[in-house]
Design a protein that fits this description.
Layout: H1 3-11, H2 18-29, H3 35-48, H4 52-63, E1 79-83, H5 91-101, E2 106-110, H6 120-124, H7 136-146, E3 148-152, H8 159-170, H9 177-190, E4 195-202, H10 211-227, E5 231-238, E6 246-247, H11 249-260, H12 266-282, H13 289-301, H14 304-315, H15 321-324, E7 334-339, E8 344-349, H16 351-361, E9 377-380, E10 387-388, E11 393-399, H17 402-415, E12 416-419, E13 429-433
Parallel strand pairs: 1-4, 2-3, 4-5
Antiparallel strand pairs: 5-13, 6-9, 7-11, 8-10, 8-12, 9-11
Helix pairs in contact: 1-3, 2-4, 2-8, 4-9, 5-11, 5-12, 5-14, 9-10, 12-13, 16-17
This protein binds uracil.
The site of uracil has 6 residues, from helix 9.
């Protein structure tokens, strides 16, 4: 088998066999196939696409390129949740304790933020001492004992994807649907849960700007997961404006804690309940959507989800006092209000612009290893559809540096569009695929 022949074959629109895909994936992971040949193949895939069979073969080959987490020691149906990424997406911080409080084992792999999107691990590190560097044994023990653990993605998990993703990132070959689907699913399959619930975002702050592309990506991922023997569900949700009001690590943790106290913003809670329902159904904790939602609501009313977050934070080395006293969380020195100048309605808030404002403030990473300031970010006071008057605050910029605060302020102003009529309100959930 020769890589040269595979590039020619794909260039002419023919499908590669399972053996060919395994050969090139393994060869690339071992360093036997050079970057220039792999780049040529990735570009040919961007133009010619891949069949369902090819996509599944690539996913399984990347899954098998490293370690597979063995969660068989955990009792019950283990559930993982994954978001394709967005701005203000603190869903996992609310959802995981709610679902765990129902007795569903939540065995979650999370990542750090990159660029304008945030990551769950960075947010959790707002709790002093918190660590996601658990051994596999600790991870399984914690899930067995209290139904919840979150681990960082290890380098041993789907290493072929890690190398290929880095190559795609610099060769303009990221945005191909089958490549994205196989990349995400290879990691999720290697992480070992029995059921996977996907939050596929669509809109200005998402990878998939168009709804039809988000549906297509969700469908591919659900099909891959099912073919690999997993229970699957994908919820397609709005990311046209930031989710909730808070963007920035510490601000988002505070909002998540508010949500667990029953004070969550409506859009965030709509997404949380949609995903939580799928997780509870997959874990067979309820027979109907209504019953699942009722159970989830009780975890908020009875504060069992809040207590679960505290228990989880403490079990992973963090200070649980912060869960009950969120005012202790890191706070920025400068607060600058963004004042509205015209009467009307908020027509939209460009999520990506708000994410970039947070990045400018130091709340996100420009490169993989750059340090971040947990205390900075943007708090939105108005969301799409709300009436606004001149002189009212649209948002507050939280900063530790005046120059950066001014730059971020400009981005926030740009992000808001004010219009004379109220926009049509749409549901946060665009669809659910199983
Ligand atoms: N996230 C991934 O993990 N892989 C992709 O290809 C795109 C987004």
């Amino acid at each position: 088998m020769r890589m040269y022949d595979m590039i020619r074959k794909k260039k002419s629109g023919k499908a590669l066999t399972g053996e060919e895909i395994r050969f090139m994936t393994e060869g690339y992971a071992k360093g036997e196939i050079p970057d220039y040949q792999m780049s040529a193949l990735m570009m040919a895939i961007c133009f010619q696409g891949m069949t369902k069979e090819e996509t599944l073969s690539l996913t399984l080959a990347m899954r098998d390129s490293g370690e597979m987490l063995d969660l068989s020691g955990i009792q019950g149906i283990k559930v993982d949740k994954h978001s394709t990424g967005g701005v203000g997406d603190k869903t996992s911080l609310v959802l995981a304790p709610m679902v765990a409080a129902l007795g569903v084992p939540v065995a979650k792999m999370s990542g750090r933020g990159l660029g304008h999107t945030g990551g769950t691990i960075d947010k959790l590190e707002c709790f002093p001492g918190f660590s996601t560097e658990l051994t596999k044994e600790q991870f399984c023990q914690n899930v067995n004992r209290m139904k919840m653990a979150i681990m960082g993605q290890t380098a041993q998990l789907a290493p072929a994807d890690k190398k290929l993703y880095a190559l795609r990132d610099v060769t303009a070959t990221v945005d191909q649907l089958s490549l994205i689907a196989s990349s995400i699913m290879s990691k999720k399959l290697a992480a070992g849960a029995d059921a996977i619930v996907l939050d596929v975002k669509t809109g200005s702050g998402a990878f998939m700007k168009e709804e039809k592309d988000a549906f297509a990506l969700a469908k591919e991922m659900v099909e891959i997961g099912k073919s690999a023997g997993k229970k699957m569900a994908a919820v397609i949700t709005d990311m046209d404006q930031p989710l909730g009001n808070a963007v920035g690590n510490s601000l988002e943790v505070k909002e998540a804690i508010l949500a667990l106290n029953g004070l969550g913003p409506q859009d965030l809670m709509e997404v949380v309940y949609a995903l939580g329902t799928e997780m509870a159904l997959a874990a067979e904790k309820a027979d109907t959507r209504e019953a699942a939602e009722e159970l989830l609501k009780q975890t908020i009313q009875e504060k069992t989800a809040l207590d679960k977050l505290a228990e989880f934070v403490e079990a992973q080395g963090g200070d649980k006092r912060y869960v009950y006293q969120p005012e202790l969380l890191p706070a920025a020195a400068i607060q600058m209000q963004v004042i509205n100048t015209e009467a009307g309605y908020v027509g939209g808030i460009q999520a990506e612009e708000i994410g970039l404002a947070s990045l400018i403030l130091g709340g996100g990473r420009m490169t993989k290893d750059s340090p971040i300031d947990l205390s900075v970010g943007v708090l939105l006071h108005k969301k799409r559809g709300q009436a606004v008057q001149p002189g009212e605050a649209l948002a507050t910029v939280y900063a530790n540096d005046m120059e950066r605060a001014k730059e971020a302020y400009g981005k926030v102003v740009q992000a808001f569009s004010i219009q004379p009529q109220a926009p049509k309100q749409a549901s946060m959930v665009k669809g659910i695929l199983r």
